[in-house]
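hey can u check if this looks right to u? its 260 residues, i copy pasted from the old doc so theres a chance i mangled smth
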Amino acid sequence: MARAGEAVIEIRGVGVTYRSRAGVVRALEDIHLQAHQGEFVALVGPSGCGKSTLLKVVAGLLRPTEGSVHLDGVPVSGPASHVGVVFQTPLLMAWRTVMDNILLQVEIRREDPRRFRQAAQELVDLVGITGFEGYYPHHLSGGMQQRAALCRALIHDPELLLMDEPFGALDALTREQMNLELQRIWMEKKKTVLFITHSIPEAVFLADQVIVMSPRPGRIIHRMPIPLARPRTLENMGTPEFARLAEEVRGRLKASGALD
């Protein structure tokens, strides 16, 4: 585990090229990025710029064509045990209850689920779905399903949490509520988070640092620290400072050709 102030994620010159039916596709080019212990880093960029590809590289699910990724100073050569991943959709098993879906993570790791039941219950309480432990996914709203998916990602107490646009499919009101909940959980758990989003306000609201990416091939074109005090509230979104930060991100995207 990295100590305070040390880099949990270090991405060094990563590029990804792959072949498709249309030919060779250059997805990422010369990516350099660090995320430090307890830092919340948001990646924002246009569709197809390689954000999800980069997350897969960090997660050890995809090998880069060039460059390398180090987690806690160790080169990534495959999925790491101290990483949790939350995808765009909850990916809950329809035939398993909420509690059993959460414990699936430890079963896959060949641990005894009974040892983690108390930790799972504490996470359920933390994310606000107490009372739904025995329900099946089709009984839950989209927001509740994503809360269960977050519990599953946290059950093994990972140091690093990778989130691939986890709230993109939710309605606007639920998405705002989940932003507040994620901030609260992050402040309590102090995980390092790499968060992908298409939403500029969401990136500014959640992050300590917003990374702006160009259209494909994805490159980092701007790094912007977010100096807003925490905890942040929805009322912060209406302030001149929030508007200024969001407009700066928007301007960088427009200058790159991502916005017309």
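The first strand starts at residue 7 and ends at 20.
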